[in-house]
Amino acid sequence: MIRWLASQGFTVFVTSWVNPDASLAGKTLEDYLNEGVYAAVEATLAQTGASELNTVGYCIGGTLLSCALATWRRAATIGSPRPPSSPPSRTSPRPATC
Hints:
Elements: H1 2-7, H2 29-48, H3 60-77
């Protein structure tokens, strides 16, 4: 998939998860969203200068991505000025319930 997307002109970024050990035992869903999905989206948008991006998630990354997309959609539905395609800013609170 990565090779095909790149051959079609897409800029491709890939994230990978570490195998958790005891040092990560205190991490929460909110931590994984904030330090994983949200940080990756914000870094990608900052590095590319793009205002939107396409995503693909697999396994736990897909689950976390679904939670992030659901919270962005919910924020837009309840009157947030941020459209669903925009990630929350680093200073805004991020709901972690999906």
